[in-house]
Amino acid sequence: MTAGTAREEILRRIRAAAVPPAPEPPRHYLRHAPGLDPHDREAGLALFAERLEEYGARVLRADAPGPAVARVLDDEGARSLVVPDGLPADWTAGWTGRVRVDRPPLGKAELDATDAVLTGCAAAVADSGTLVLDGGAAQGRRAATLLPDLHVCVVRAAQVHSALPGALARLDPARPLTFVSGPSATADIEMIRVKGVHGPRRLAVVLLE
What we know:
alpha/beta
């Protein structure tokens, strides 16, 4: 058997033994929260608020951000606030505490010494009570949302999707995505819950109608 013939015989055997290609993954999976009418906007918002509150987050529904943000900050005893560059000015209107813009970027010690951070979000998921930040407009960098003890997030009703597939379709996977489901918390093997291990111990969401 010549070298060329041997090569063809080897390739023939490989092709004969090759595993057939895997079938295409199904694309008909549920794209909205179970039991929820995807066209029922109010039901979706109610589920979103319910999930957040189950996690221990506070939800305040409002028509405008300014008064609601000021109320949350005052209720939580915040005296200093960091905001990303470009945050709408009316979001902090009416609040009398100290507001610092994260420009140039504040150091870790400065962020840690700040009581609260105020951001928007890129999307939200009702079924899991999740906020998604991608560093875009009114969101800023990740470090600023992790070090202050209180995170106040303004979410518009149009940003709330019933389930994760709807939100993913609106997100850019090339951006730095952060998924936030309630205040930061963890539990050890004895199930002792500790808050604030990986981020803010407190989370408040201002849900704009």
